[in-house]
């Protein structure tokens, strides 16, 4: 389906809220292993508020493991020194506190998401980090979901089951789900996987639209250098013998080629 909206910035349902955190993520001397297999070692990574990062590395380099230390699901998060939103992991915060401040998309989330629910419910579920909508939305939350559908020019699919729309539109709906609670941190893991080039371009330009000039912090994972938002200005590259970090001036593709 040909879907080439021109987004109206004045309708973007995100306020640049006054988040103030010492840092968004700080990891010190991270060590991750499965049995005798070392995934990551001696990794230091600090992400300041408003920074836009690209996370790169070949398959098996530890990208997913590293992300799960941040999104809160990794059992070794507590044996490492990790600070999220200025608080040490394991100092009494709940997974819920972390998820509340993080908007997340991944191919796994898309694959396992309940696609029988309506597009409206899918976006609304972002308030509760569930893969269905089991609680009643407040009036404010309800209106925010409508605003996202309006901004994405998808109001016409509001009541349709998620599975009945194209994969690329499903991905847009899941992006709105990640953003509906206006989180300070956005973690997008291979968000264009499975989309064709035109759909990927639309998705990436939408991310730029949302993140450019805002104090949102972005961690973007992509193996494909043609699908990287222009707002990204820093790279963490995981390699066999350690990791490299560098900042980008000019276009990302140039620096990564």
Tell me about this structure:
This protein has 257 residues and is of the alpha/beta class. 28% of the residues lie in helices and 23% in strands. The protein is built from eight helices and ten strands. The strands form two sheets. A six-stranded mixed β-sheet has the order 6-7-8-3-9-10. A four-stranded antiparallel β-sheet has the order 2-1-4-5, covered by helices on one side. The two termini are 32 Å apart. 34% of the residues are buried.
Mean pLDDT: 86
State the share of residues found in helices, binned by percent.
Answer: 25-40%
Low-pLDDT residue spans: 250-257
How do the strands of the widest beta sheet line up side by side? 6-7-8-3-9-10
Shape: globular
Count the E strands.
Answer: 10
Biggest sheet: strands, sense, closure? 6 strands, mixed
Please state roughly what percent of the residues sit in beta strands, choosing from under 5%, 5-15%, 15-25%, 25-35%, 35-45% or over 45%.
15-25%
SSE-based structural type: alpha/beta
Radius of gyration: 18 Å
Summarize this entry quickly.
The chain is an alpha/beta fold and 257 residues long.
What features would you highlight for this structure?
8 helices; alpha/beta; 10 strands; disordered C terminus; about 260 residues; 4-stranded antiparallel sheet; globular; 6-stranded mixed sheet
């Amino acid at each position: 389906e040909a879907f080439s909206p021109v987004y109206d910035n004045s309708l973007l349902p995100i306020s640049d809220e006054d988040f103030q955190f010492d840092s968004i993520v700080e990891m010190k001397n991270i060590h991750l292993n499965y049995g005798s297999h070392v995934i990551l070692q001696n990794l230091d990574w600090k992400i300041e508020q408003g920074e836009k990062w690209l996370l790169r590395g070949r398959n098996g380099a530890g990208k997913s493991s590293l992300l799960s230390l941040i999104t809160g699901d990794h059992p070794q998060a507590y044996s490492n020194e990790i600070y999220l939103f200025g608080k040490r992991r394991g100092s009494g915060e709940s997974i819920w506190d972390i998820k509340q401040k993080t908007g997340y998309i991944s191919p796994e989330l898309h694959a396992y998401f309940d696609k029988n629910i309506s597009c409206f419910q899918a976006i609304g579920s972002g308030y509760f980090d569930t893969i269905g909508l089991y609680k009643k939305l407040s009036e404010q939350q309800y209106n925010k979901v409508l605003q996202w559908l309006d901004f994405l020019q998808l109001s016409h699919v509001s009541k349709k089951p998620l599975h009945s729309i194209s994969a690329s539109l499903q991905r847009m709906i899941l992006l709105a789900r990640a953003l509906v609670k206006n989180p300070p941190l956005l973690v997008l893991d291979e968000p264009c996987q499975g989309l064709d080039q035109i759909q990927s371009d639309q998705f990436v330009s939408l991310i730029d639209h949302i993140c450019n000039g805002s104090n949102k912090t972005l961690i973007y994972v992509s193996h494909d250098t043609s699908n990287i938002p222009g707002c990204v200005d820093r790279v963490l590259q995981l390699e066999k013998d350690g990791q490299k970090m560098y900042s980008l001036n000019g276009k990302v593709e140039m620096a990564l080629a």
